[in-house]
Amino acid sequence: MSGYNFAYLDEQTKRMIRRAILKAVAIPGHQVPFGGREMPLPYGWGTGGIQVTAAILGPSDVLKVIDQGADDTTNAVSIRRFFARTAGIETTTHTADASVIQTRHRIPETPLRADQIIVYQVPLPEPLAKLEQSRAETRQMHALAEYGLMHVKLYEDIARYGHISISYDYPVMVNGRYLMSPSPIPAFDTPKMHRMAALQLFGAGREKRIYAIPPHTDVKPLDFDDHPFRLTRAPQACGLCGARDSYLDEVVMDDRGGRLFVCSDTDYCAGRQSMRQDEDAAA
Amino acid sequence: MSEHLLSATGLHLSFGAIWALDGVDATLWPGEVLAVVGESGSGKTTLLHVLSGRSAPDAGLVAYRDTEGVAHNVHAMPAPQLRALHRSDWGFVHQNPRDALRMEVSAGGNVGERLMAQGARHYGVIRESAIDWLRQVEISPSRIDDMPHTFSGGMLQRLQIARTLATHPRLVFMDEPTGGLDVSVQARLLDLIRTLVARLGIAVVLVTHDIAVARLLADRILVMRHGRVVEGGLTDQVLDDPQHPYTQLLVSSVLQA
């Protein structure tokens, strides 16, 4: 597209973002400030993720964008089209074919490889924000690795509900050092971050922070010895592909209480459905 | 027990032209309760903040002897070490419990916070400890999951004390712990503090303007005026036979019940 630099951002900005990314990779889980730019979409729609993606894209990259696991929602479609136009790169909906995956609220079910990068859109990068209002104080807490307060939050949860009730954005310790918000992915996805082969980058546009988890880094959810972290998943199988291991969306079907549970990862679900059809055809 | 737990020598601190501390020396022995009395503006709270490392003096030295008997210069300590000390070996009881408590966290969470900050990671153990401490400060364990804002002023102060003592500190700084409470609640609280401090063998630096509080709790007393210690000694000795005119004035101004 004429009139735009490759992938929308100017090269100086990309360089600034890449420096922030390099620092973030060097200090896993540490939030690095960066000069976030105005993007042609509102804050909260993925401005942080887009800037990170723009800074790392090359002409040979293949981009996949998901929103809540789906390739076909407004956010995913428009961001994918944005880069198809401004960078002229190839896009895909297949997890295995992508070299860069930008995501909001999910990690694909298909395990990621070492030659892939996943970019998370982050609304609130500071995991202690709800517990401690002062950013000066939370920075100090990070500096001194004083994370007792986060356990107070978990304690309160158990005291009130009998279990840790955090179902998304589950706080994690990265590399045994920094407390990190994994962005609002379901707690179900948190274990996928642990020693993931792919590089994980996080961009928060409004808060102007970038952080990262290098490949094969330890990511441990916070918990208590007698209340360990547990996976939560709807007990149903996917209504379309029959998967029992994937994260499910609950869809209201009618006004008589009808419900359908389907995979939130549309690519995973579609892949399993076509595999089934092949098997049926073969039989 | 032959060495000072905390010792301060030659403390000076000025705020502009005013000397808040003007050559103050103080020592504290393990397990001892030291009261600092004086009228408003005499520098007692400033002294407490300097002793606890919260503010730095212009001149002078504060030394703290740790459990291994090693002396540390409180103001030369790196910030992480000082913060760790405040989390574990030391405690600070504020006049207003709302300054210290987390009002949006339950009573149990408040008591457990210091334990968790020290690395306690077993919910059952933390909860047991919280229940035990609530009992010790005479708060019904049934209120463990209640929010502090549902507590009365006296209960809040007792909750703050439970929270502070949960990690078994060796040294607790108290700034007017009975301020703003009515007389009967004050009496109960004083009784509670005296019992706990004696039983646990905690050393206390207590700042108060209330001579009666000092008489009840303190082993030794320092009388401050205009940033100087004008008189010091055993509590009974100072209060029954005050030497300095200012101390005489302080003692005689207490209403006899």
Break the fold down into its secondary structure elements and pairings.
The complex is a heterodimer of chains A (283) and B (257).
Chain A: H1 11-26, E1 32-33, H2 47-56, E2 62-67, H3 74-86, E3 90-91, E4 100-104, E5 117-121, H4 135-143, H5 148-161, E6 172-174, E7 178-180, H6 190-193, E8 199-204, E9 209-213, E10 219-221, E11 248-252, E12 259-263, H7 266-282
Parallel strand pairs in A: 2-3, 2-4, 4-5, 5-8
Antiparallel strand pairs in A: 1-9, 6-7, 6-10, 8-9, 11-12
Chain B: E1 6-15, E2 18-28, E3 33-37, H1 44-51, E4 59-65, E5 71-73, H2 79-87, E6 90-93, H3 97-100, H4 107-117, H5 123-136, H6 153-165, E7 171-175, H7 183-200, E8 203-208, H8 211-217, E9 220-225, E10 228-234, H9 235-240, H10 245-252
Parallel strand pairs in B: 3-8, 3-9, 6-7, 7-8
Antiparallel strand pairs in B: 1-2, 1-4, 4-5, 9-10
Helix pairs in contact in B: 4-5, 4-6, 5-6, 6-7
Distance between the first and last residues' Cα of chain A: 48 Å
Number of strands of chain A: 12
Largest sheet of chain B: 6 strands, mixed
Structural class by SSE content of chain B: alpha/beta
Q: Helix proportion of residues of chain B, in percent?
A: 25-40%
Q: Which percent range fits the helix content of chain A? A: 25-40%
Binned strand content of chain B: 15-25%
- Report how far apart the termini of chain B are: 38 Å
Greatest contact between two chains: A-B, 15 and 24 residues
Question: Looking at the chains present, what oligomeric state does this protein adopt?
Answer: heterodimer
- What fraction strand of chain A? 15-25%
Output the radius of gyration of chain A. 20 Å
**What low-confidence regions of chain A span 5 or more consecutive residues with pLDDT below 50?**
none
Give the tally of β-strands of chain B.
Answer: 10
- The stretches of 5 or more residues of chain B where confidence is low (pLDDT under 50) are none
* Gyration radius over CA of chain B: 18 Å
Helix-strand string of chain A:
HEHEHEEEHHEEHEEEEEH
Count of helical stretches of chain A: 7
- Largest sheet data of chain A: 7 strands, mixed
